[in-house]
User: Fold these one by one.
Assistant:
Number 1:
Amino acid sequence: MQTCRLIFALLATGIAHAGPPMLERIAVSTDGSGFVEVSSGRAFHPWGVNYGNGGRLMEDYWDKEWDTVAADFRKIAGLGANVVRVHLQFNKFMQSSDRLDAAALEKRGRLVALAEATGLYLDLTGLACYRTADVPEWYDAMDEKARWAAQCVFWRAIAGTCHHSPAIFCYDLMNEPMVPSGPDGKWYSGKLLGSYDFLQSISRDLAGRKRSDLAAAWIDTLSTAIHEKDRQHMITVGMLPWVGGWGHLFGFVPKDVATHVDFLSIHLYPDTAKADEVRTALSECTGHGKPVVIEETFPLSCSVRELEEFLRESRTSACGWLWHYDGFTPQDYDERAKAGRSGRADFLWQAALQSFVKMKPGMMESP
């Protein structure tokens, strides 16, 4: 069966040469400090990227530009990554509250085959509503109970079609969910980064409940739906960090979340002006008996050197790190410069990806 899947993967992605060694399923180590490859017992350190191409949402182009997706995965593997985080848009998969789009599921299946063929693991992050104008009206009109039920339909379907694949690193329930602080909340933050809103609330009304209890109930509800179809692959949730003066503003507190997920995922971007904040935020994730993955990081508000320093320090607390990729390798940026097509952002992207390649060997060693 494994051989058949790999042959299908090679045919589906157009990769003619021999593929990498067969992937093994990844699980939490017995001591809870990190990850292992299940069959061999080898330690596994996630070292990868959040996937994008030209700032676009993947589902906007994977129909007509599948070759772009396949080429990107090969490039990402060539940079030394072993994990790719992909963000699945809710509206592209759900035709109604209880019916999924068959074509989208087929593309997701093709994506899993591509991951197997290129030797990359997938961090499948779901329920994304990044372009809020695309969100179905019926979805936003739902109350909490109905919305959670629709989210369960989504995750049950994804898990049901992924459970067989060793290329699934984890299911990330949602990117940067928020717990409301009271009544009359909104589903989204209303704060755009570019043209996208990356934050989404799990409810619009706290209704007298503790924020930690609501977060736990939501995680458990969606995890139960996944476990109906897949009890092997790990589950996490991409959390925003503790911030100075505000604490855990968004309601997902690592010490409370830890018992409800397989590992903790935190998004940390060092800031030159607030050097201690990111370190304090990471310390909030340690000591809870679960591995810690820095699921998003990049030198957005610091120098590349400062990011490198932080990541090296983080090896005593974290065991995995995911940067960003937007369609170009360092060599691609050289070609863009030679052609006179470089922009200011190109130099940041190139320097960051060069650092990504350079840092990997040291980050794979025990601290």
Number 2:
Amino acid sequence: MPNRAIEIHDSVLAAVSFSQGEAKLHFSSVYIHQSEGVPLRDAGSGWVQEAVLRIHDAKMEGAFSEFPVDLADGQTQMGENILDNEIPVPLRHKGAFELRLQAMWHGQEVVSFAGSGAELELLGEPKYVEEFRP
């Protein structure tokens, strides 16, 4: 199976909810780069898909003024590992986890989430968008 990663830029955050200490980030569309090499760097294809990211023992800093939010940029940190503009696929991480998301519009608002772990669930079928050539 090819290597995959979500490119935060070009993804759309539809809603954020909290329940029993868990943050649930619902993305109406994530842009997934798929490659035989390194996703987001090497040639491959682009796909969109609905997704839910759950962050355990979550704390949130900042807020988006309205939803949905077209995302411009972001960063994922798992322990000491920092990924710019990327969320790994698959994702099931136990340990320190941080996600920073920046809105494309609305003054480029920035919201950060921190927790003790995270897991990503892709929903439905991916839809092909384009070929990617660096």
Number 3:
Amino acid sequence: MRTLIHRQSQKAGLPPGSLVRVGEEKAEKVKITVIDYKDEHFEQREIERVEDCLDFKDKPTVTWINVDGVHDTETVRRLGECYQVHPLTLEDILNTEHRPKMEDFGHYIFITLKMLGLSPNGQGITVEQVSLVVGQGFVISFQEATGDVFDPVRERIRRASGRMRSREADYLAYALIDAVIDEYFVILESLGEEIEGLEDELVTDPGQGVLESIFKLRREMVVLRRSIWPLREAISALEKSESGLISQGTRVFLRDLYDHTISVVDTVETFREMLAALLDLYLSGVSNKMNQVMKVLTVVATIFIPLTFIAGIYGMNFENMPELKWSWGYFAVWLIMAAIAGLMLLAFRRKKWL
């Protein structure tokens, strides 16, 4: 939390629209890839200069410009100038700590969302912000680093499969958002398997490692919730938007996308409740185990109370104690003490305390 506040404080005192990079730098070099397509036409190339994007601006095709790495504010600024993107939008693109949202600027729509993935070691969730600028005939996507979940979309465009090449830029934006949300289901499936494993482990061997795993999963659920809840509102606003950039045919798919986000939200809430139940079960198990230990210690202490009393009496150094001179006194005391302990154990068992 302190790191986040420190990052946000970098913009303190600056006027609105100031282009300041906020967030962790995840790419060493900015990479710009352009995919231009329509019906039978397909072209893909990597460009070195932002100005080369202008070659695709007035073409009657759909142009997808993908930018990997948003740490270079100059590249973002120049690309924004080429497509008349508002400075406030550019500021939001550079601030990778934003919550998912949708804004309609008239001649373009701005969407920001979180692209999640499983870390390479499988020990957590990676979070990367993706920003989309959707205009007439173009989509510009900004990512923090190279590598994403959009390969199936690229393959559909390349193979001309489905309806990708026959639709406009709004459908491309839908396909990109859909690819991000589909990855949420993959993550939820993995987390669901972890939770099931924790349930089995709680039954067999509820050790300290189980508690650590529960807290790790709860932190990941917080990340999922912060990424998905605002996205649900953004997609709902996008579907209900009166912008002419969204066709009626694409709104049908956006409604289906909204249903997917509802399903993801419901699953996350279910997992949160399951983890809370697992935590309660773990604490109950620890408490029950402690109660069992305390019960045994209490029984042992209770048995030794009368034995200690007898030993205390015959441990007193008075001269006038006849039993001290008795040759069978030692054995008699042992017999009495054993009888008392046996009778007490029998009484405890009858009361089902043992």
